[in-house]
User: Which sequence fits this backbone?
C-alpha cells in the first residue's frame, strides 16, 4: 500500500498591518487663548464625528512653553494645526474659523 502523506493547505495569511507610522496632528495653542480652546473643540468634533481618533498621533504644543517649536514650524498665529507625515508638513491650517475648515484640511486622512 502506497499512501501519500496528507498535507494540509496553509491557512491564508492575515493582511499585514501597515508599517507606516501614523501622521502627526500637531496643534499649536495658547494657554489662555479663547480661540485655541474653540479650535480644540472643533478638532475634537471632527475626529469624533468620523471615528478618527486613531488616525493621527495628536501632539499638543503650548506656544508659551515651546517657543523653539513655534520658531521651527514658523507659527505666526495660534491656534495653528499641522499634519506631519513622513517627516514633512502635509497640511497647515492657521486660525481655523470652524469645523468645516479643519475637516477639509484633514480630508485626505479622514475615513
Assistant:
Amino acid at each position: 500500500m502506497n499512501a501519500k502523506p496528507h498535507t494540509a493547505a496553509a491557512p491564508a495569511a492575515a493582511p499585514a498591518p501597515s508599517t507606516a507610522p501614523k501622521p502627526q496632528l500637531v496643534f499649536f495653542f495658547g494657554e489662555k487663548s479663547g480661540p485655541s480652546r474653540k479650535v480644540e473643540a472643533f478638532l475634537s468634533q471632527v475626529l469624533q464625528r468620523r471615528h478618527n481618533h486613531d488616525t493621527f498621533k495628536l501632539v499638543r504644543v503650548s506656544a508659551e512653553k515651546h517657543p523653539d517649536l513655534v520658531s521651527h514650524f514658523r507659527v505666526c498665529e495660534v491656534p495653528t494645526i499641522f499634519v506631519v507625515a513622513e517627516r514633512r508638513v502635509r497640511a497647515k491650517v492657521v486660525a481655523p474659523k470652524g469645523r468645516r475648515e479643519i475637516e477639509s484640511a484633514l480630508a485626505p486622512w479622514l475615513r
